[in-house]
């Protein structure tokens, strides 16, 4: 059995040991009636990183090249938001495909399998850094399970619900969209994975399962890939998703 080492907090910062487990701003100390200069500068830097992440650009060319390793077609799509500013001001447009994208999907052969989608969301940085690493672990599992895969989709200026329209156009039975999450002051590279069974336009968020905070300092891609594969198998087997589908992996069977 591993020896438990009792932590001895430093004088004046009794909560400093918690920094081992979180990037949240705790035990920052004090200088007089204010916070230390280093902490003040770190806060401003984190805020700048968050703003940069919102306006970051998805590297579609690099991602497309990296996705070629999976031997699947890659479709480049765009929402109806024509600029980043419009995307931020009109969330509804980020949920809808533009005409060119609809036509591009209409040219594809109907696929009853799973469609995997990469969208920039509110942090393209998260997709640039984490999406392919997760797919490297997930796609081999799906292929081994003999799951049919639709073309991979790269979506610029996309929001979560845009996956419903994409899946409906392709005739996919299930969609998984990897999307950059809203940056915070402790994480600007967080990616979310949203799974929807029988996707179609007009579904609400309670129809989806979400795995959040996928990044090196959050939920590792190894764990996220395993959890996502489990949920995909359960959704296809039970033909449900969202609040009706619980993540019971690792729990004792009630049979």
From TrEMBL:
This is Ethanolamine ammonia-lyase small subunit. The basic unit is a heterodimer which dimerizes to form tetramers. The heterotetramers trimerize; 6 large subunits form a core ring with 6 small subunits projecting outwards. GO terms for molecular function: cobalamin binding; ethanolamine ammonia-lyase activity. It comes from Mucilaginibacter gilvus. Keywords: Bacterial microcompartment, Cobalamin, Cobalt, Lyase. The gene is eutC. Belongs to the EutC family. One of its GO terms (cellular component) is ethanolamine ammonia-lyase complex. Catalyzes the deamination of various vicinal amino-alcohols to oxo compounds. Allows this organism to utilize ethanolamine as the sole source of nitrogen and carbon in the presence of external vitamin B12. It catalyses: ethanolamine = acetaldehyde + NH4(+). Adenosylcob(III)alamin binds at residues 160, 181, 210. Pfam families: EutC. Its cofactor is adenosylcob(III)alamin. Pathway: Amine and polyamine degradation; ethanolamine degradation. It is found in: Bacterial microcompartment. The keyword Lyase applies. Its EC number is 4.3.1.7. Binds between the large and small subunits. One of its GO terms (biological process) is amino acid metabolic process. Signal peptide: none annotated.
